[in-house]
Amino acid sequence: MNSTRKLAQSLGLGYVIVVVIGNIIGSGVYKKIAPMAAELHSSGWVLIAWIVGGLITLFGALSNAEVAGMLADTGGDFVYYKKIYNRFFAFIYGWSLFAVIQTAAISSLAYVFAQSFNNILDLPVIFGSLSQFSIAGVFFPFEGFTVKLTAIILILLLTLVNIKGIKTGAGVSKLILILVFSGLFLIIAFGLGSTHSHPFQSFNFTSDSQAPVTISTFFTAMLASFWAYQGWASVGFIGGEVREAKHNIPKGIVAGVFMVIAIYLLVNVTYLSLLSIPQLEQIYQSGNQIAAIEAVRSFWGDNGALFISFLILVTTLGCTNATILASARPYYAMAHENLFFKSAGALNKANTPANSLFYQGIWASVLVLSGSFDQLTDMIIFAVFIFYGATSLAVFILRRRMPDAPRPYKVWGYPIVPAIFILFCIVLVFNTIFTRPREAIIGLTLIFSGVPVYWFLNRKKSDPKE
């Protein structure tokens, strides 16, 4: 390992778009429509939630793109916050990525991969007698241990792949993304064209439920959609490895998010045309069914269920790989600021932050043992939107502080677009505290666990604002 090596700028715009989309399209496109239906009880409102979630994500992406265009470098928002706010806030963000946001994303994606792998091969039960063992009655590390062990093995294997170099990791993501797009377009074409499809059913706003759609339930439902859209900002982490980063990263973010929104709307219209809201609610309540599998089963039978299981397997494999690839870079940047383990700042012969990838893989494996898929994803969305709001606020700060600085990209709709996104982040965070208190408390605990770590790392020097 060598701490004097520099990251190679080897990725162009095409790879940037691949990393953006690869970090977004994962398990959410297959699973999250069911919990959304359980909250909103209406196909029309579910689609509205997907559309609003996509627009809000786009507003955040547009705001992030302006900041990235000015400050792009390895570490993404960690670097931005250090220059805009101070070392402490930048550290808390980087620590949050490591403690919960990115590592839990890797864990939950690998978890869904393992679920699909188990559905196909029916793996033997491991430590079944310990399934009820708990830590404080909240965490059940041995519950479904076969699936969790498979997820851990996947995380460690993909970590080894990405240690071999960023082009290797990005190349794997590109190949997988081609397979995923092909599979999703097959589902859309054959699903909407089947005799079982009722397209107008997708736009029905009536409901058999007595529970009205409120602002709170709508925001809670959007936690699910935001998980499906989550990951677009991760491309900023690899800014130091992108050619002409200040031009290609903003373009890649905007292009990638637009493509994902279009695909998600088509896929979810297909699901809603094949499955009724009561069916989706039943799928959610079962706890072990996936909406996409049941939708494809409706027109292709058991062979269709096998096809979609393989597609979920490939998709979550690709998204896990893309997330592992991008997420280790902030810890590398933090190590060079003496804000993380010093060894995380070293590069191997492939100019890859191997130690940073290794630490990330170990903690992500621990998080696999901590909870269920939905618990992990709600925790991630709560935490990440705190920082998404901070990045959008930076647009206003930089416009005031550096009005004449070159801006390769300026956010469309300024100041309305970033202002709407900031307001939305505030409402979503407070709504989650009230509707998902356990996930919010765990998320906040992991975020603020970084305070004593920061004090320890800076105990012999002052904490200057930069």
Give the tally of β-strands. Answer: 0
Which structural category do the helix and sheet elements fall into?
mainly alpha
Report strand %.
under 5%
Largest sheet: none
> How would you sum up the global shape?
globular
CATH topology: Amino acid/polyamine transporter I
Topology order in helix (H) and strand (E) letters: HHHHHHHHHHHHHHHHHH
Describe this structure in words.
The protein has helices spanning 13-24, 28-31, 33-40, 43-71, 77-84, 87-121, 145-163, 166-193, 215-229, 245-274, 277-286, 291-327, 329-335, 354-368, 373-401, 416-435, 437-448, 450-457. The chain is mainly alpha-helical and 466 residues long. It has one domain (13-457): Amino acid/polyamine transporter I, CATH 1.20.1740.10. Helix 1 (13-24) packs parallel to helix 10 (245-274) and helix 7 runs antiparallel to helix 14. The model has no long low-confidence stretch (mean pLDDT 84).
Care to give the gist of this entry?
The chain is mainly alpha-helical. The chain contains 18 helices and no strands. It has one domain: Up-down Bundle (Amino acid/polyamine transporter I).
Annotate the secondary structure layout.
Layout: H1 13-24, H2 28-31, H3 33-40, H4 43-71, H5 77-84, H6 87-121, H7 145-163, H8 166-193, H9 215-229, H10 245-274, H11 277-286, H12 291-327, H13 329-335, H14 354-368, H15 373-401, H16 416-435, H17 437-448, H18 450-457
Helix pairs in contact: 1-8, 1-10, 1-12, 3-4, 3-9, 3-11, 4-9, 4-10, 4-15, 4-16, 5-6, 5-15, 6-7, 6-12, 6-14, 6-15, 6-17, 7-12, 7-14, 8-10, 8-12, 9-15, 9-16, 10-12, 15-16, 15-17, 16-17
